[in-house]
Amino acid sequence: MLTLACLAGGETTSPPPIAWTRSLSGYCDSAAAIASDGTIYVGAFNGLLYAIHPDSKTKWTYATGREIKSSPAISADGTIYIGSRDNALHAVAPGGQAKWRFATGGWVDAAAAVEANGTVYFGSWDKKFYALRPDGAKKWEFVAGGAISATAAIAVDGTIYFGSHDKKFYALRPDGTKLWEFGTRGAILTAPAIGLDGTVYFTSLDGKLYALAPDGIKRWELTTQSAGRSSPVIGERGMIYLGVGKELAAISNTGNFEWRVNLGDTQVETTPLVAADGNVYAIGFYRELNAVRTNGLREWVLPLSIMTATASPTVTADGHLYVGNNFNMFYKIKTGVPPAGSPWPMFGRDARHTSKATGK
Predict the structure, then answer these.
(1) Nearest to 15 by CA among 314, 318, 299
(2) Which among 69, 17, 22 is positioned nearest to 331, based on CA atoms?
(3) 21: β partners
(4) In a domain, 360, yes or no
(5) DSSP string, 240-255
(6) Is residue 357 domain-resident?
């Protein structure tokens, strides 16, 4: 059932406290990744990857050759992978030392997806999708028909899913051979999410959200009329949450709008996050972090700044939420609530941004 909720007051609780705020000396379009020791990694458009202690102090910075739009991903051994507009994917040790740099023929705006065996998958604006070994050696490459700026997702069985500017969504086997492709009528710029039953959800600039079975057969499509950068996430009972135009939308796993909540006057450019208490965190284009209950009513709202926000939030198991904005500011917010135990609760699925489904 579709209901519309207006965000003009009516919050039931006070927002959580901001633990700290600090400058990154460059605007942040990158979703932070959090290591097991609590270190926060985030990229900025000044070309630096920041490693930040939980108390906000800089641990180290690593300079790439150009701007960073990509989000970091962390492997099981602590290696941090970050793409850069210097046309390369960088592997950085937990101490800040460069491990290797893999050059491509175009910008690397997509975040890496990391398999349990250490294989790293990512796409580039050079129209190629790469699989690298942990030492940086290339296992294989797959050539698409257009640039690849969207992050991939890895299924439980190892199938790799990603979309391209060529208006196609691809499924590749772990050896790099194509399993299938699915055509849409628009470029695909956002990351997919994988449900508990293996259903893959993704959006296209044709203004639709698609649900595909693991064999590539379309289960349903929903016209959203949105061409934003918000990627879908999955909450409890398979509910899908997505930024649609100026709204946060809840969509059933059968492809129907449950509710839509206005978040401001401009397009929502961030990916929502589902918390363990059922609240969905979503950032409108202008300054506010919203917590919306599963019935579509707002729990609380937290103003962040007067500037725009395009980075998606990340929350840790101890309930600390991290997010940056386009005013060079980075926030730690003490929500006290961990991510939901759902199949895909946030960008990159987990706080390390492995983009690997676990099947639970």
Answers:
(1) 299
(2) 22
(3) 331
(4) no
(5) EEEEETTEEEEE-TTS
(6) no
Report the pLDDT value the prediction gives residue 2, as an integer from 0 to 100: 45
Burial class of residue 290 (count of CB atoms within 10 Å of its CB; 0-12, 13-18, 19+): buried
Question: Is residue 349 in some structural domain?
Answer: no
Backbone angles phi, psi at 237, to 5 degrees: 60, 25
The count of domains in the chain is 1
- 174 falls within a domain: yes
CB contact at 8 A, 36 and 346: no
**Is the model's pTM score more than 0.90?**
yes
Query: Which tokens in the block code for residue 225?
Result: 């009329």
Give the integer Cα–Cα distance in Å for 169 and 152.
10
Say which range, 5-14, 59-68, 125-134, 143-152, has the weakest mean pLDDT.
Answer: 5-14
| Longest CA–CA separation in the chain, Å | 55
Does the structure show a pLDDT above 50 at 85? yes
Query: pLDDT digit string (tens) for 165-185?
Result: 999 999 999 999 999 999 999
Q: Residue 12: count other Cβ atoms within 10 Å of its Cβ.
A: 10
- Are 330 and 322 spatial neighbours (Cβ–Cβ below 8 Å)? yes
Question: Which residues constitute the domain of residue 323?
Answer: 3-334
Sequence-distant (6+) residues with CB within 8 A of 61 are 48, 49, 50, 51, 96
Instruction: Give dist(CA 39, CA 48) in Å, integer.
Output: 16
Amino acid symbol at 306:
I
- The CATH code of the domain that includes 45 is 2.130.10.10
Q: How far is residue 82's CA from residue 324's CA, in Å, rounded to a whole number? A: 17
Q: What is the dihedral of CA 56, 61, 65, 70, to 10 degrees?
A: -40
User: Amino acid identity of 194?
Assistant: I
- Provide the pLDDT for residue 309: 62
Token pair belonging to 200: 């893959």
Tell me the C-alpha distance between 318 and 54, whole Å: 12
Q: How far is it, in rounded angstroms, from Cα 122 to Cα 132?
A: 9
Q: Which residues contact 8 (CB under 8 A, 6 or more apart)?
A: none
For every residue of 94-124, DSSP letters joined together read TTS-EEEEEE-SS---SPPEE-TTS-EEEE-
Q: Are 348 and 33 in contact (CB under 8 A)?
A: yes
Tell me the two tokens of residue 42.
């985030």
